[in-house]
Queue: 4 jobs
Job 1
Amino acid sequence: MSATRFAHGVFLGRCDLRREAGGFSFAELSPTVPEAQVQTHRHDDAHYVLLLDGVYLSSARGAPALCRGPALIYNPPGTTHRDCFRSEHGRFFTLTVSATRERELGAALSLPAQPLWQDDAAALLPALRLLAACRAWDEAAALSGEALSWELLAHTGRLALERSLRPAGWLRRVREQLRDECARPLRIADLARAAGVHPVHLAREFRRHYRCAPGDYLRRLRLERALSALADPRLPLAEVAAQAGYADAAHLGHAFRRGYGLTPGDYRRLRAALLPRAQVARRQSRAAAPG
């Protein structure tokens, strides 16, 4: 039996909101089909699924056995799968890329040929901002929606490229060290000495494989660590700054605005406003539980 084909912007679930802008379609949905009744199906167009609430089963590369949001899945054109929610309790947001836009991307950006799981902050922030724009739709929001869609696609392309490259073992260890120790001062000379290579060779190979300088990568890691820490509303900004390697809250605020276009406080308010109330309540309940 052939898989059911889903046309542009069509998904299993009740659609509560739908928008269109510049060849992109956006929708906010709730699941309506029980897991046992979900059949294998094919999506004609490339699309993203932003998990907001509920437990989801996904065959995407890098996805855990049981997926929980917030997290983002990219599915290329022609994806055939049986991804679904475990129950009819959930919430998700979708971005579908028209065939015309996908063809335009072909010459400028290499997107993954397989579904890709993304739970990094650099992907989640534009996705959450896109959801906010769709909920408060006007002419300016349509422009923002188109721009944020391109931003998401560019990030997915970069991430797929990084994961497909085969750097030397010493270079992978350098990147792991940057990840593990991004909150403390690091110098190229020290990284090169630990790797057993010349600093010039390290800098050149890092850019060749990861398409950025080590310093740029370190700044990105610190911003992502700050984003993760900001998910805890009880954590003071000074502590968030310390955990992410910033001198103080003011330094964090300056870097955050430069990197994401909003303040740490703005991001906390955005996140709190967009996450479902039930999800927030569960997290607060877990935080208050003894032990």
Job 2
Amino acid sequence: MRQLLDAARKRGGVLRATVLIDAGFSRLSIAAAVESGQLTVPRRGWIATTDADPYLVAAARAGVVLTCVTQAKRLGLWVWEEDRPHVGVPSTASRLALPSVKVHWNAPVVPRASGQLEDGILNTLVTVAACQPYEAALATWESGLNGGLVTKEELGRLPLRPRARRVLADAMPFSDSGLETLVVVRLKWLRLPIRVQIWIAGHRVDFLIGDRLVLQVDGGHHVGLQRAEDVAHDAALTLLGYHVIRVTYVQVVERWHEVQDLVQRAVAQGLHTSGR
């Protein structure tokens, strides 16, 4: 029995019963494991270990594939928002009644193998481009490029639709986070150089706009010792002639107009140039 369970876990914990049968296990041993409660049956023809990933169990039960922002999060990519689970089904499949779930009926660019419960990086990114707003999709794509999960060359060889082509054309593999992508995209209209994560006065700054305007974005960890270090660094930057604007993550994501107003006013005063 232990060998059977180990074999199931090595194959992801949720799989078609025929996979184990092809591996040499008998239908009788699988049935015995189910009867004893050591395996479950999420759907006819499928089995799952009791400690299997709940998302995979749910996907097997519904006959769908995890994709789009749901799978992007599972792959460790930056995702702006996941309002509900996103799943994919073949474009020829019958309609599904899955309340509170976003179902994608588009044909995958990479064929899905029988028994596959998760999309790979390519199908995931292409579905994100079709589903999400431009900025959010770009941030997720750049996260994948930066993490080395995919290259622009590989993506460029796919039969992409116009929305995905636009994201691919604008995507850069150097952004460490979706937040960086959002800021750069939203300030592109300024037509000023924007450098990301560069070292000044012994510390990294989030963004350097022009020559002298520093934009720092604080997350929830900017408290205590971190906050004291930030204040000291801001003082050092000021003494070197830089102008520092410090905002919060929430402002960037939810109240962008406040951030843009601060940057606009600083640029209007020439605080981004070395001549001031």
Job 3
Amino acid sequence: MRSPIHIVDVERLATWTRYRAGLCDNCQANCCTMPVEVRLADLVRLGLVDPFEAEHEEVRLIARRLLKAGQIERYTAKAGVFTLPRRASGDCRYLDAATRRCTVYAQRPDTCRRHPQVGPRPGHCPYGARTARA
């Protein structure tokens, strides 16, 4: 009999676990498989946009450059939100595949800093969002 393979199903919000202290200690970075929406200040902190450029260049031109370079997946002008690209696995581009830890933790975007207070189910984490497949 084959053992079940556990996959993360972040789309099923009902499977998420209410956040509690220490939950991240044993986490496998399930939250890092969701799209990461960032603002211009986050891109400056990540070093993708120069502070001078952010202050003096039109945001749409910055977005065009970042899209062309593959440093963002999309830009929503109305909301002023950029979406970071993910790897083929669905992981955030800044997640170390071996350790499952953030490689830019000190510079991480505000969305990541404020998780799980913000997101599709505030106060909950996809930590428990696992389903078994045979």
Job 4
Amino acid sequence: MTSRRRAAVLTTLGLLVAAGLVFYLSGFPGERSDSGSLPPASRVQRFEREPTVSLFVKETGERKELPIEEYVAGVVAGEMWENWPERAYAAQAILARTFTLEFMARGGTRSLHGTDLSTDPEEAQAYNPSKISDAIRRAVDATRGQVLTYDGRYVRAWFHAYSGGQTTTPREGLGLQEVDEPYLRPVKLPDNPLVPDQFKSWRVELTEPELRQALASAGVDVGTIQQVRVAARGPTQRITEVEVIGESGRRTLTGNQFRLAVGADRMRSTLASTFEFGGRRLVVAGTGSGHGVGLSQWDALLMARQGRTPQAIVQTFYPGTRIEKLW
């Protein structure tokens, strides 16, 4: 989710084999989301001292151990933009630490590599230690051991690039019908002058052959496409269902599935005001970047520049949660 990171969106799935939990990492810095069947959140574990984690380094095949706070610093560097204020980095650090501990409690990547974690963002979180700055180190140190919890369990640490002015629920943003956490409710946010134009207002056009190929690559093949329409929208007006009708059948996808198939660097969110198919061409236009669930990074940036604490920033997006220090 930074302009320096890949703009292409990973539409493949990273599998948490031990828990049957799947993650989509899409787009620009910071879009982390669960998909598939979700087991209950893991209970919080306290530690006498800072834990050490094992890490599989995809680039070299190396397996190494390092302090968890060092790992968190590399994740913040991999998931956020450069030259942001420390308070924004610190908010992201709380989420990254929370994600890491819950992920490890579910088995991490042990069934894949025999390690707790992996540097492959399809398997865990983005990790880029070469981009760790002094500001990131100070932010991680300032939140040392802090995680976000609800009712004694780690929260679902979702985040995305930009909300479009309002966050949403996993049901609306990700199509996860079984997830109904009380701390994941739509949060309205003020106008944000810091958001880049490409996130605030975007438009994409695809010809029928381009759309057919994109959908087929995602496993949706209905032949020549005759019609594509929005079948349902959610409470915040995000697209929740898209019906695709072709010469050899019809398929209904969740809004997020359709977005990822098209490419989250093109259809940046499901908060689309325009969705038209005609003349063998699809036109979609809207606002926002990412699935819209959990922390919105560009809105967190605005709060950080306004002087809000990292803890207050995170809890704005996860109301009713607690910050607990585990070591």
